[in-house]
Every structure is written in structure tokens, then in C-alpha cells.
Amino acid sequence: MTIKDTPEEWEIRATETPFVGNKTSVRTDDVVMPDGTVVRRDYQVHPGSVAVLALDEADRVLVLRQYRHPVRHKLWEIPAGLLDVPGENPLHAAQRELYEEAHVKAEDWRVLTDVYTTPGGCDEAVRIFLARDLSEAEGERFAVEEEEADMELDRVPVEDLVRSVLAGELHNNCLVVGVLSLVAARSGDGLDALRPAQAPWPARPFEV
């Protein structure tokens, strides 16, 4: 048997959107279960995100430390951001985030992995890219604000990040999934066997 997620949509008898925020909203659906009963499901509607595991020539990952109010923590993360425009090309969004958050550009881009962050309560889909052949971006640095104004930037060896992840010291979803996926890819077919940067993404279709 092939282990593979498959698309499926159960019947929805009614739907409403009780809350609409700046970036996301909350939707309530009345969903028909396999036994015919109807159950109400509340979930966050999210535009989707991209994240970038930027790996330099010294085998270090570019990481950011940022305050996250919902969990009351400063978390070490990899550059990431929302797909602000419907149908936006995720590679272009990832390149933008790497520039804005770290003032870095990369010549080699691959898809590392695609994930649903919290499928039981949110429809957010994230594409995590691997970016290599890094260099300083040209031009002025992007003007940061709000939480990003307090952001710290560092480069940490892959092995140190893995150790901290397994010790329960790092918790950001994209960092954890990205770093462990990197290690798994290396031990498998190698990084050059990863999907190309413009690989299809059914969760958030886009035009090349």
C-alpha cells in the first residue's frame, strides 16, 4: 500500500464566518459524518505561508529569534511569511521573505517539504524551501516594524539545531520540520534529488 495523503471533502450542510481578521478568519461548517450525523467544526482560514531553510557553505542555517505573543515566547525560527496575494508564486514569496528578514539572496532553490501546520483546527499550508549558495542582498535593508523590529539574526550549525530540537529546546514548526527534513534528505537520495523550486503545490495552486 502506498502511504500518501489524498484529497477528500465531506458534505457541508451550512457554513458561516463569525470572525474576520486582518490576515485570517474563523469559519464554522456543519459537516456530515459517515454515519449521517451532522457535526459543527470551527477552524481558522489561513492564506498559506512559505518558509526558507537557508544553508550556507559552512553548513549553518540562518535563523531568527522573534517574539510570538500567542505562546508568550521568543522563538528561534527560519525566515517565513504569508502568501499575501491569492495565487502568489510561493518561490517568489520565499525569496522576498529571505530578503526582507535577513537581507540575503540565494542562487539554488529546492522544495524541502510541504506541511499542514495544524490540520485539526486550521487550513494553513506551508511550503518549506531549501536555499543554498547564499550571498548578501543588494540595496538597502528592508525597514522592519512591530515584532520584527526586535528580531535577532544568527547562523547555527545544522548539528547544533538537531540536538536542540531533540532536547525540546526549539519549538517552531517550520524550523523543526525543515531541519529534520534536511537531515533525512541527506541520508536518503541527497539534496539534489529534492523537488524543483517550482514543483506543483495542490494545497496552494499557483502560476509559474
From TrEMBL:
Where is each Nudix hydrolase domain found?
Answer: 44-178
What is the uppermost EC class here?
A: hydrolase
Q: Can you name this protein?
A: NUDIX hydrolase
Has the keyword Hydrolase been applied to this entry? yes
Does Hydrolase show up as a keyword for this record? Answer: yes
Gene3D superfamilies (UniProt xref): Nucleoside Triphosphate Pyrophosphohydrolase (3.90.79.10)
Per the UniProt entry, the Enzyme Commission number(s) are: 3.6.-.-
The GO molecular function terms of this record are: hydrolase activity
What are the protein's UniProt keywords?
Hydrolase
What Pfam family does this protein match (any one)?
NUDIX
Alphabetized PANTHER family for the sequence:
ADP-RIBOSE PYROPHOSPHATASE, UDP/ADP-SUGAR PYROPHOSPHATASE
Highest rank taxon of the organism? Bacteria
